[in-house]
C-alpha cells in the first residue's frame, strides 16, 4: 500500500527503533533496569527508543505534539495533531527474553486517531493503517476473522498484576467468558493483541487500565480491518477511560454482552 507522507515517516521511525531494540533484546541479561512501579519496569533501551522516536518524528513534523510513555508530553504549535507513542509495548516480556513485544506509533488529529503503526521486530511484522485506507500487515491486506460462533472463537485480554484494582472484574469476566468460548490468551502486549484482532488471529480483545499509548495505534488498525471497537462502558471515551472491547462484527454483540454483564 502506498501510504501518506505521515504514515511513511511513522513506519520508517518504527523500523529504526525496532532494530535498535532488537540489538538490546539479544543482550537482555546485560540491560540496566530500573523500577518505575510495582510490576512495571522500564529499561535503558526503552527510554533510548522513545528519545529516538521523538527526535525523528518531531524532526519530520516539528509543529506536532508528542505523548510518549517515558517522558513528559510536548505540546506542539499545531494543537490539532499529536503523536502518541509506546516505544516498547510488552516491556516485561522483553526483560524476560520473551519474543513478543512491539513499537507502537499513532497519529491523532482533532481528537481522532487517523493513522497507526505497530511493528514487531522479532517477527518483522509491520501492522499499519490510515483512516479510510484499510489495514495492512507488511504487503497484505488485513481483515478481522469471519467466525460467527462464540464457542469457536478465541479472545485476548490482560490480567491485572501486582495488586491492581481491576483484578476482581477481570476474574468475573473470565468466569463468564471461558465456558462460552474456545479460549482466552494473555500474551502481555496490548498493542499486539489489537493488531492480532485486525489480522483475524484473535476474534476479540478487551482490557481495562490501559494508557493512550497502549492502544491508540491498534484502534485505527482494528477499525480499518473491519472490526468493531467500543469503550467497555457506554458513552465513555476509549482513550480517556483506558477501557476497550473489540471484535469482528459477527460475534461482537454476543461477546460484549458477556463482558459487560453486571
From TrEMBL:
A single GO molecular function term of this UniProt record: metal ion binding
Database matches in InterPro entries: IMPase, Inositol_monoP_metal-BS, Inositol_monophosphatase-like, Inositol_monophosphatase_CS, Inositol_monophosphatase_SuhB
Enzyme class, spelled out: hydrolase
E.C. number(s) listed in UniProt: 3.1.3.25
Keyword Hydrolase in record: yes
Kindly state which keywords UniProt assigns to this record, in alphabetical order: Hydrolase, Magnesium, Metal-binding
Any Pfam family the entry gives: Inositol_P
Name the catalysed reactions.
a myo-inositol phosphate + H2O = myo-inositol + phosphate
Cofactor(s) of this protein = Mg(2+)
Sites binding Mg(2+) sit at 69, 86, 88-89, 214
- Give the superkingdom in one word: Bacteria
Q: Which GO terms describe its biological process?
A: inositol metabolic process; phosphatidylinositol phosphate biosynthetic process; signal transduction
What the entry lists under CDD domains is as follows: IMPase (cd01639)
Similarity-based family: Belongs to the inositol monophosphatase superfamily.
PANTHER family per the UniProt record, alphabetical: INOSITOL MONOPHOSPHATASE, INOSITOL-1-MONOPHOSPHATASE-RELATED
Recorded protein name is Inositol-1-monophosphatase
The species this protein was found in: Yoonia vestfoldensis
Amino acid at each position: 500500500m502506498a501510504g501518506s507522507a505521515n504514515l511513511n515517516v511513522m513506519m520508517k521511525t518504527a523500523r529504526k527503533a525496532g532494530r535498535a531494540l532488537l540489538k538490546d533484546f539479544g543482550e537482555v541479561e546485560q540491560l540496566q533496569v530500573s523500577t518505575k512501579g510495582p510490576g512495571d519496569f522500564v529499561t535503558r533501551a526503552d527510554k533510548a527508543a522513545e528519545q529516538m522516536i521523538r527526535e525523528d518524528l518531531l524532526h519530520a513534523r516539528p509543529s506536532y505534539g508528542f505523548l510518549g510513555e517515558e517522558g513528559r508530553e510536548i505540546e506542539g504549535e499545531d494543537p490539532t495533531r499529536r503523536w502518541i507513542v509506546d516505544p516498547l509495548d510488552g516491556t516485561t516480556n522483553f526483560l524476560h527474553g520473551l519474543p513478543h513485544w512491539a513499537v507502537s506509533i499513532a497519529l491523532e488529529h482533532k481528537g481522532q486517531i487517523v493513522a497507526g503503526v505497530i511493528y514487531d521486530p522479532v517477527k518483522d511484522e509491520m501492522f499499519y493503517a490510515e483512516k479510510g485506507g484499510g489495514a495492512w500487515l507488511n504487503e497484505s491486506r488485513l481483515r478481522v476473522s469471519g467466525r460467527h460462533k462464540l464457542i469457536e472463537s478465541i479472545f485476548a485480554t490482560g490480567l491485572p498484576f501486582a495488586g491492581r484494582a481491576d483484578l476482581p472484574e477481570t476474574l468475573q469476566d473470565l468466569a463468564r467468558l471461558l465456558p462460552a468460548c474456545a479460549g482466552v490468551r494473555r500474551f502481555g502486549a496490548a498493542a499486539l493483541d489489537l493488531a492480532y484482532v485486525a489480522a483475524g488471529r484473535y476474534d476479540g480483545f478487551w482490557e481495562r487500565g490501559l494508557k493512550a499509548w497502549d492502544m491508540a495505534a491498534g484502534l485505527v488498525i482494528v477499525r480499518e480491518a473491519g472490526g468493531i471497537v467500543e469503550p467497555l462502558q457506554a458513552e465513555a471515551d476509549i482513550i480517556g477511560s483506558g477501557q476497550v472491547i473489540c471484535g469482528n462484527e459477527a460475534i461482537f454483540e454476543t461477546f460484549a454482552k458477556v463482558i459487560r454483564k453486571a
